[in-house]
Amino acid sequence: MSLFSFDNGGRREPDHTPPVPHPSGARPPEVPADLVPRHVAVVMDGNGRWAKERGLARTEGHKAGESSLFDVIEGALEMGIPNLSAYAFSTENWKRSPDEVRFLLGFNRDTIRNRRDELHARGVRVKWAGRPGMLWKSVIKELKDAEEMTRDNTRLTLQFCVNYGGQAEIVDAARELARQAAEGRISPEKITEDTLSQHLYAPDVPPVDLFVRSSGEQRLSNFLLWQSAYAEFVFLETLWPDFDRRDLWRACEIYASRDRRYGGAVPNPVAEGESDGADRRSTGQAGDVTRLGRGQLH
Keyword Metal-binding, does the record have it (predicted)? Predict the structure, then answer.
């Protein structure tokens, strides 16, 4: 048996450990390859509420959410999603209680350390997006070590967003462009959307196709603002510790059913003798969002 397989680019890479099937036996939906999102962003929301419903400390909800993230990663691998971004700790999370902040930083550090080998075995490339700033050096070390260990993996890029803020990322990119302009290395008139994109934290990760948030909240919370300019949004009622790959797959089915026009439009068919200005009703606006609980997809 060969110890190597070939990726889509013809490069030779070691065989990797396949994803563990879901305990229920569920399999990913049959979505055409061209309708599978290239980049899914996930806001892992609802840990605190999950814990509160059970009379537990908020930190217990965060602990329970770790297995949910790993199951979603397994589901992304099964479905062939090439990029997954997880919102682990935001620039706004520093406003939480000192005890919860300390827990979250240590928890993120330990999660990366404890899961690094499993991710590597499955062919996952880990990338860190965020500001060093106030972040613990031990957290940065674990993130950097995981990046180095997994840098040649090609099956899935997991962008782990720690001390991340969408506005901060855009500001950091603007600062670098301003610095280059002040040094005469770039003309302000030559700066385009693509130029700014190349100065984001992970310019090689494509724009977000599908933005998923658990717990029923319907907001971006400063996550991947630039990259989500044309993303499809799916908001699910499931609290994050109860979330698993089946929820990810359901969101992907919803995504595949959407009509993505990127600002363009096909002229409406007009009956003979009628004006195109007649009463028209749209049945699926591109800006619609979907808010569902498990089992509500038809």
Answer: yes
